[in-house]
Structures are given as structure tokens and as C-alpha cells.
Design goal:
Layout: E1 2-3, H1 14-21, H2 34-46, E2 51-55, H3 58-69, E3 74-79, H4 83-86, H5 91-96, E4 99-103, H6 112-115, E5 128-135, H7 148-160, E6 164-169, H8 172-179, H9 183-187, E7 192-196, E8 207-211, H10 213-225, H11 234-246, H12 251-266, E9 271-273, E10 282-287, H13 294-303, E11 306-307, E12 309-310, E13 315-319, H14 326-337
Parallel strand pairs: 1-11, 3-4, 3-5, 5-6, 6-7
Antiparallel strand pairs: 2-8, 7-8, 9-10, 10-13, 12-13
Helix pairs in contact: 1-11, 2-11, 3-10, 12-14
The structure holds ligand TLP.
Ligand TLP binds at residues 6, 8, 57-59, 83, 87, 135, 139, 168, 170, 196, 198, 207.
Length: 341
């Protein structure tokens, strides 16, 4: 099976497993795991921030950020299809007593003009606008790189209005490779960012929340509260370090392979790429009724040995990653073209 459901499905490479086996570990709740400590220091430095916190998942990284930036009765402004809202199980309300204002964007991207009308006045009747959360690359937006000038403009607007800023950077590595813009240049606009080692970088688990020392110290207490304080977790941190050192540049191959899949999608009447251009490793396609439901299309691809994700009734997603080769993607492209009866 060629598994294109997500870049989360990868298995550790032999080199990564060897690094995990060789990791020095200790109890991270005592801050005594040397490999976790090294990862936190290295990831903070990479993104030009003071501190970082190792967390099991991207969801936890994002939700710790919501918790440290906001108090109950506060509101987060975010794009309507952002992961923080769409795929984190209602966590801002459930875990932090925070409401979310979802604002439709263009493939996940918001401009200042989209946000401006949603800033609440400082009035006891109103929810308090507190945090702007962006996502780069934007998953449901089709893997688009959030343009740097728009990132800068939105974050400057937020700061000028007393709002904190957070980036869901689960796939910031893909944005770096696709844009040529480095990690510090992306990160410097935000107070905090979360990054995932378990997506395109291929680690089995692990994310980090990165930001100023005081917020990360607060985040450490929240991580305990959320049940994410782990013990000898250097085995996972070793995989993350290995991934960060060796698996970033190769994302360019995933992007090339995704474009190959996109070309096949373009050849199928009844499938429409959304957005029409593929910038990174995510290929989203709208399925028209003449071809059937998304589930039916995924089912037909599966018969040909290709796993696609049916995410909704009319949309499928194909994701390239470390565990699919060029040859696999060529086979998958042939299966996609085979959808034309
Ligand atoms: N995304 C997963 C699913 O949850 C949809 C996927 O297969 O793409 N931010 C972004 C932008 C993400 O895409 C994801 C995972 C997360 C955060 C959450 O990461 P985890 O799964 O580690 O909690």
C-alpha cells in the first residue's frame, strides 16, 4: 500500500532508531533528561526564541499556547479552517474557557482587513479579544505557505492592538523549504509557535512550544495540568533531534512528488485541486458528484494500492512524505489517472 493519508504515518528510519536506542535519558519531570534538554535548547535557538517546551503532540503545543496567552472569557481570532479550531476537539473552550472567532480566509490566509472588524471594544459586555493564531503551512488551506508580508502585517496589527500572537507551525519546515525564508524570520513575528517533529520530519512523536522564557515556564505548569509531563522521554527527543538535523532539506523531494500527484489530479475531470497550485506536500482535491463521494474515490484508489484520506464528503487529501518514493508517487499518479473510466 502507498499510504498518502498523512505525513504522520511514517515509521522511524534505521538511523533514527539507532539514535533513539543510543539516547541518554533521565526523568524529564525533574528536568533531568539530557536529550530533552538538548532538544529544547536547540529548537529555541533555531527559531531565535528564549526557550522551548517538549510536548507529546502538536495539539498540546497549540492548546498550551491558548492557555498561557488567554484567560477564561477571552477570545482567539483565527482562520475558520485552522487546525486549532477544526481538529483539536473543541479544546479552547473545553480546556481554557476561551471562545474562538472563526474568520473565513483564502486558502487559510487572513489579511488585516479580515481581522479588523472582529476586534472587540474594551467593554464589560464583550468577550476580550486576546490572541491571533495563524497556521503555516496551512493544512486545510491546501498546504499553502502563509505569505511573509501578510504574516508581518497581521502580527504587527495584533501587537498594535494589544493582542498576543501564536503560530501553529506544525509544518513550518515545509514553509521554510518552499519559500527559502529561514526559521527565525518566520518566528520573529510571533510571541509563540508550536512545531511538530512527527509530520514531514518523520519522528514517531513529539512537538515543541517555543517562545519567551516566562511564557514557556507557565507552559510547563500547563503541560503538567494537561497530562503531558513525561519521564524518560529522551528516546523520543533523540528521534526529534535526528529529524530536525537530517530531514528538513529533503522536504523539497516531498514537494516535487506532491506536484507530480497534482498533475495527475488535473488530468481527472471531476477532481479539482484546491487551491489550484500545490506549494508543499499536501494535495487537496474537491470531488464532483459525477465521480462519486470522496469516500468512494478513496475506495477506488485503495483497490489500486493507494491510500488517500476522505476528509469530508466531497474532499480528498493526498500527502507526500519520507516513506513514499518518487516511484511510489508515479504509481499513485497512474492510479489517480485511472479514476477516469
Ligand atoms: N494534523 C493531522 C490531523 O489532525 C488532521 C494531519 O493528518 O494532518 N497543526 C496542524 C497544522 C496539523 O496538521 C496537525 C495534525 C496538528 C497541529 C496536530 O498535531 P498532533 O496530531 O500531533 O496533535
Amino acid at each position: 500500500m502507498i499510504d498518502l493519508r498523512s505525513d504522520t504515518v511514517t515509521k522511524p528510519t534505521p538511523g533514527m532508531l539507532a539514535a533513539m536506542m543510543a539516547a541518554a535519558v533521565g526523568d524529564d519531570v525533574y528536568a533531568e533528561d539530557p536529550t530533552v534538554n538538548e532538544l529544547e535548547a536547540r529548537v529555541a535557538d533555531r527559531f531565535g526564541k528564549e526557550a522551548a517546551l517538549f510536548v507529546p503532540t502538536g495539539t498540546m503545543g497549540n492548546q498550551i499556547a491558548v492557555r498561557v496567552h488567554c484567560r477564561p472569557q477571552d477570545e482567539v481570532l483565527l482562520e475558520a479552517s485552522s487546525h486549532v479550531y477544526l481538529w483539536e476537539a473543541g479544546a479552547p473552550a473545553a480546556l481554557s474557557g476561551v471562545t474562538v472567532r472563526t474568520i473565513p480566509g483564502r486558502y487559510g490566509v487572513l489579511d488585516v482587513a479580515d481581522l479588523e472588524p472582529h476586534l472587540h471594544p474594551d467593554d464589560m459586555h464583550s468577550v476580550r479579544s486576546r490572541l491571533v493564531s495563524l497556521e503555516n503551512t496551512h493544512n486545510r488551506g491546501g498546504g499553502v505557505v502563509y505569505p511573509l508580508d501578510k504574516t508581518a502585517a497581521v502580527c504587527a496589527w495584533a501587537r498594535a492592538n494589544g493582542l498576543a500572537t501564536h503560530l501553529d507551525g506544525a509544518r513550518i519546515w515545509n514553509a521554510e523549504v518552499a519559500s527559502g525564508v529561514g526559521p527565525r524570520e518566520w518566528a520573529r513575528h510571533f510571541d509563540t509557535l508550536s512545531v511538530c517533529f512527527s509530520k514531514g520530519l518523520g519522528a514517531p512523536a513529539g512537538s515543541a512550544l517555543v517562545g519567551p522564557k516566562d511564557l514557556i515556564a507557565h507552559g510547563r505548569r500547563v503541560r503538567k495540568l494537561f497530562g503531558g509531563a513525561m519521564r524518560q522521554v529522551g528516546f523520543l527527543a533523540a528521534a526529534c533531534l535526528y529529524a530536525m538535523d537530517r530531514h528538513v532539506a529533503r522536504l523539497a523531494d516531498d514537494h516535487t512528488n506532491a506536484r507530480l500527484l497534482a498533475d495527475a489530479v488535473r488530468d481527472v475531470p471531476g477532481l479539482a485541486l484546491v487551491p489550484p497550485q500545490v506549494e508543499t506536500n499536501l494535495v487537496w482535491a474537491e470531488v464532483s458528484p459525477e465521480l462519486g463521494t470522496a469516500k468512494a474515490v478513496a475506495g477506488r484508489l485503495k483497490e489500486q494500492g493507494v491510500l488517500a484520506a476522505a476528509l469530508g464528503t466531497t474532499v480528498i487529501r493526498l500527502v507526500t512524505h519520507l516513506d513514499v518514493s518518487r516511484a511510489d508517487c508515479e504509481r499513485a499518479a497512474a492510479a489517480i489517472r485511472g479514476l477516469v473510466r
